[in-house]
Specification:
Strand content of chain B: 15-25%
Structural class of chain B: alpha/beta
Mean pLDDT of chain B: 85
Number of helices of chain B: 19
Order of helices and strands of chain A: HEEEEEEEEHHHHHHEHHEEEEEEHHEEEH
Shape of chain B: globular
Helix content of chain B: 25-40%
Largest interface: A-B, 23 and 20 residues
Oligomer: heterodimer
Shape of chain A: globular
Strand content of chain A: 15-25%
Largest sheet of chain A: 6 strands, mixed
Strand order of the largest sheet of chain A: 9-18-17-16-12-15
Helix content of chain A: 25-40%
Low-confidence stretches of chain A: 1-36, 132-182, 233-245
Number of strands of chain B: 23
Radius of gyration of chain B: 25 Å
Chain lengths: 473, 572
């Protein structure tokens, strides 16, 4: 199996610590062989009226793990007019709630996962824990989970500070909770409100010491636990290197490559056989930012916008979308498939937006979300990550303003996208102004793509991004 | 108003026409000449008009100043036949007995009421009345505690607290006040209040007194049993009145436990959960059925759970019985053993600070001497026919004996008892009368309130299937109501279940601000046989909550057109 798509790894060593922690190192590759079955269904935010663009989850009628019959109410959604019950179209189990009560989601976005059988609940939950909820509740491992490379490049984007992780909460006094009513820890006696809080904050009540009558866990015990967890996770953010260390890493030890790391290594070396060169360009993103702001509520993501813009530019420059495999000929690829790099637990993967030039922006955004969720659940099909003809890699959300990427063998070019930052610029009419600008840097195979090709492509791309009205067509 | 009437009489207006068509001519004094009244005369209900009129009078006057209403009536005179001490003796001076007594005096019957405890019965002393006092407090607490709600009004509340004893006193004072009102209203009319427990000795004969010392035997032409009910405590549950309590104790509010389990999630349990959570308790519901709030329309129940249970400090166990409840003692908390309602397997044990038993009410019919007249109770209830006439063990009617209210179990509501009592007195006065129980509204005074009249949707659909008619349902939301939004109380739903073929109202269910007050438009419509196509033309003041029902009626689609009585404008 080829890992060629994994190879623009110039950013792995530079990646912020958060990209790397939480990984034990083993068992990374299981996903590649996992049979993908559609027995886990997604429950989408329905359109309850013709004017509805997003809905707010008023309440989940069912809890995770509950059995659902077709036609049974699962969730209550507030639309512009009224609260409505949303019913399940299938029998099964509510495996994972992705959008929590009180939060909103765009129409068509996934709000929960439905498993067909009880056994699949765990699978779906793993899918959920790594998926990108729009406004994430304290999902397990929220601090460690790398943010999807999916936002407007902004130096301010920090994801971890305010969210405290389950792990932090549940670690600690787990063993020390002993109260008379618990029958030696087998049973937890907690008041109704304490239970509610624990559920909301994802606190394991077994780890909470009860201060109520007869050692009962009461609300303030849970609150204290949550506060303690906040402090510890806040501290960790301040000293990120400490958090970064995966558990059980022994400094000075020699660790053999995992299968994935081995594959990455091979492909990195192989990439040296390709003569690459780089061309950079600075693009003003004010118009793109404005557009994004306008249509964000419709579920459009920045990744989708960039992919769409790139695809439209590639239409006019087919050579940049070509690839050379044997060194004797090259192929003008018939499809424009934009691969977008996503950091996942223990590595990275490039889900592919196929035919990005033809699919409309909204469908593209939905597709992207689906792919990211699948990637995190390690459930991507080979054709969903290995068919890219052009790759995008975006580190803007970490504040990276420029970097360069290694070309994945088998493709013609990869574009590294930096952060969009307010920049003082002189304009042609002699004025000085503040504009949001981002730097892009394309690495290409010089056997087939020449400097002038890239220059022309980048000029087209800049035009599209600076006047993005065509993106929404 | 007067000018309006004279104008309409002097012109060929629909009102004048109907006045002629109807046997009840409009007099200048009549101020009710709208379509509603006309429809009432046309209704095909089995009631004769005189009974419906007097019934209406009493419903209106029940909670107003009694002495004024009856000032013009004659007092409680001599019995009509000298063979009996009284024309009517009522056993039990609760709301049912009281309603019957007042109506009996109006009808010229010499009436006595026997009460072994205090006047007012459950409703006034241990039920509806004191609980409303507690709920009035809890409603305010809840509102003031809701920072978000207050903020949206631009209000700030600091240091909110309550004095438990003062809250308890409010409930107690209210009960005393209503009790003395009831007593005075009967005294003023000359109803004899006979103190002691009443026992039926034989046909038309009973005794009353406190035990064996000096029982008095009296005779009466007719006897009404109105002995009511007491809280039902399932076996295995030990009530100590302190930590394991019934509604009787809870209403005294002697303590506000940190954590209270409420066994039963019907009206009583729900109202107390509202009180306790507002005062800071956490609540665990224990419900034997698979769903909370059984008995409510499922959709209303669902919404109510969403608003009244889920966001509050309440959790619940459904599908379980509390098989054993031991009061707190020796420093141990209240122990509740839960078993699966179906398999009877032990499921869980709860340890809480207190438990409130709200599993319903059991009829209070012991010691009534029913065996003396060959009447066998069924699970304690006195069997009656649709006219509240008592049925004996042989299935035959017992002459001159009636049973109303909780003791017959038909509909355990104070106002239902009163209506049944009035219905009985109507029959005694020679007017046949059958009470339409489907027109009796019910309410649960949570925040927001729940109210209902008629059938629930599943009941209506079942009936429709059996009788082969079509059922339609329409709903309106409080969210669309101006007044509700002004109050920041947009949470709520009104639901109408009706027959699209003829516009008959089968049931109305409301959950929302002041639902208990809103239901009467619907219950009166059902009682009077008003059809949707007519009531939808009635006007509601704007902006009021009543527009929720207005919109509800207007959104119903009835296949026949309006009866068409107010087609021409009436000059005013």
């Amino acid at each position: 199996m080829s890992y060629s798509h994994l190879l623009h790894t110039s950013f792995i060593p530079k990646a912020p610590p958060s990209l790397r922690c939480g990984s034990g190192g083993d068992a990374n590759l299981t996903w590649t062989t996992l049979p993908i079955q559609s027995k886990i269904r997604e429950i989408f935010m329905p359109a309850l009226s013709s004017t509805m663009t997003e809905g707010k989850i008023v309440s989940w009628v069912k809890s995770e793990g509950d059995k659902l019959a077709k036609g049974e109410s699962v969730v209550v959604v507030e639309s512009d007019k009224a609260d409505m019950d949303v019913e399940s179209f299938y029998d099964g189990y509510l495996a994972a709630i992705i959008v929590d009560e009180g939060l909103s989601a765009a129409v068509g976005s996934t709000i929960a996962l439905l498993a067909e059988s009880e056994e699949e609940i765990a699978l779906a939950q793993s899918q959920k824990s790594s998926s990108s909820a729009p406004v994430s509740a304290p999902a397990p491992a929220a601090t460690e989970d790398p943010k999807v490379l999916d936002e407007i490049p902004s130096p301010q984007t920090t994801t971890s500070a305010s969210v405290f992780s389950n792990a932090a909460v549940s670690s600690g006094a787990l063993a020390s909770a002993v109260h008379p009513a618990s029958e030696g820890g087998k049973r937890v006696v907690a008041s109704p409100y304490a239970k509610k809080l624990a559920k909301d904050f994802g606190v394991d009540l077994r780890g909470v010491i009860g201060s109520g009558p007869n050692g009962r866990v009461v609300a303030k015990d849970v609150e204290a636990k949550v506060a303690a967890a906040k402090v510890s996770s806040g501290g960790a953010t301040a000293v990120p290197t400490e958090m970064a260390k995966p558990k059980g890493v022994e400094l000075g030890s020699v660790v053999p490559f995992t299968t994935m790391q081995g594959a990455v290594s091979r492909n990195m070396v192989e990439s040296l056989a390709v003569p690459t060169f780089r061309v950079g360009y600075t693009i003003t993103t004010d118009a793109l930012d404005a557009l994004y702001k306008k249509i964000k509520s419709k579920g459009v993501t920045m990744s989708a916008l960039l992919a769409k813009a790139t695809a439209l530019a590639l239409v006019k420059h087919p050579v940049v979308n070509s690839s050379c495999r044997d060194g004797k000929s090259f192929t003008y690829n018939s499809h424009i498939n934009i691969a977008v790099a996503v950091a996942i637990d223990g590595g990275l993967i490039t889900p592919v937006l196929q035919d990005a030039d033809k699919i409309d922006l909204y469908s593209l955004s939905r597709k992207w979300k689906e792919l990211v969720d699948k990637a995190r659940a390690k459930q991507l099909q080979p054709n969903e990550y290995s068919t890219g003809t052009f790759t995008l890699s975006n580190l803007g959300m970490f504040g990276v303003d420029r970097f360069d990427a290694i070309l994945p063998p088998g493709t013609g070019a990869i574009m590294a996208v930096g952060a969009s930052q307010p920049t003082l610029v002189g304009t042609k009419d002699g004025r000085i102004g503040l504009k949001n600008q981002m730097q892009v840097n394309v690495t290409a195979d010089h056997r087939v793509i020449y400097g002038a090709d890239l220059a022309a492509f980048l000029q087209t791309l800049a035009k599209i991004i600076e006047d993005p009205k065509d993106l929404t067509l | 108003m007067q000018s309006a009437v004279s104008l309409s009489l002097s012109s060929p207006s629909p009102v004048a026409r109907y006045g002629l068509v109807s046997s009840h001519n409009l007099t200048p004094g009549s101020r009710r000449f709208c379509g509603l009244r006309v429809e009432a005369f046309h209704s095909k209900s089995s009631w004769d008009s005189s009974s419906s009129r007097s019934n209406r009078l009493y419903v209106h006057s029940k909670h107003s100043d009694f002495s004024k209403v009856f000032a013009a009536l004659k007092g409680n005179g001599a019995p009509s036949s000298s063979d009996f001490d009284y024309d009517l003796v009522i056993i039990g001076a609760g709301v049912g007995g009281h309603g019957a007594a007042l109506h009996a005096v109006e009808k010229g019957l010499k009436t006595a009421i026997v009460e072994g405890d205090v006047v007012g019965g459950t409703c006034v002393n241990r039920g509806c009345v004191p609980s409303k006092a507690l709920l009035a407090v809890s409603g305010r607490m809840r509102e003031l505690q809701d920072e978000h709600h207050m903020k949206s009004f631009g209000l700030q509340v600091a240091a909110l607290g309550y004095d438990r004893q003062a809250v308890a006193d409010h409930a107690n004072n209210l009960a005393s006040k209503i009790r003395s009102n009831l007593t005075n209203s009967m005294k003023a009319l000359g109803v004899d209040i006979l103190t002691g427990f009443g026992t039926i000795l034989g046909p038309q004969k009973l005794k009353f007194g406190k035990g064996d010392s000096g029982d008095t035997i009296i005779t009466a032409k007719d006897i009404i049993i109105a002995t009511g009910s007491v809280p039902f405590v399932p076996k295995g549950i030990e009530v100590d009145g302190k930590t394991v309590i019934t509604s009787d104790h809870a209403l005294k509010l002697e303590s506000v436990p940190e954590w209270i389990a409420i066994v039963g999630s019907g009206y009583i349990g729900l109202e107390f959960s509202d009180v306790y959570t507002a005062l800071g308790s956490e609540v665990t519901f224990i419900e034997a059925l698979d769903q909370l709030m059984p008995g409510f329309d499922p959709e209303i129940g669902k919404l109510a759970q969403r608003v009244l249970i889920n966001p509050r400090k309440i959790d619940f166990h459904t599908g379980v019985f509390a098989s054993k409840i031991t009061p707190a003692k020796n420093g141990k908390p209240v122990q509740i053993e839960l078993i699966d309602a179906k398999t009877k397997e032990p499921k869980d044990t709860l340890e809480v600070d207190a438990a409130l038993i709200a599993t319903g009410r059991a009829p209070f019919t012991q010691g009534l001497g029913l065996e003396n007249i060959n009447v066998q109770t069924q699970r304690g209830f006195v069997p009656v026919d649709e006219r509240m006439r008592v049925i004996n063990a042989d299935g035959k009617l017992v002459p001159h004996l009636f049973c109303i209210g909780d003791a017959n179990g038909k509909m355990m509501l104070a106002h239902a008892a009163s209506a049944q009592g009035i219905s009985v007195v109507e029959q005694l006065s020679g007017n046949d009368h059958v009470l339409n129980h489907l027109s009796i509204p019910a309410a649960c005074f949570t925040h927001p309130e729940i109210s209902m009249v008629g059938l629930t949707e599943p009941q209506a659909r079942e009936k429709a299937e059996k009788e082969g008619f079509e059922v339609s349902v329409v709903k309106t939301s409080f969210k669309a109501n101006t007044k509700a939004l002004a109050e920041n109380e947009g949470e709520g739903l009104a639901k109408l279940i009706y027959r699209p073929d003829n516009g008959e109202i089968l049931g109305v269910h409301i959950f929302g601000l002041h639902a208990a007050d809103l239901i009467h438009e619907a219950s009166n419509a059902i009682a009077l046989g008003t059809r949707i196509q007519d009531i939808k033309l009635a006007v509601h003041a704007h902006p009021t909550l009543s527009e929720v029902l207005d919109e509800l009626f207007k959104s119903a689609k009835v296949k026949i057109s309006t009866s068409g009585q107010v087609v021409e404008p009436v000059p005013v």
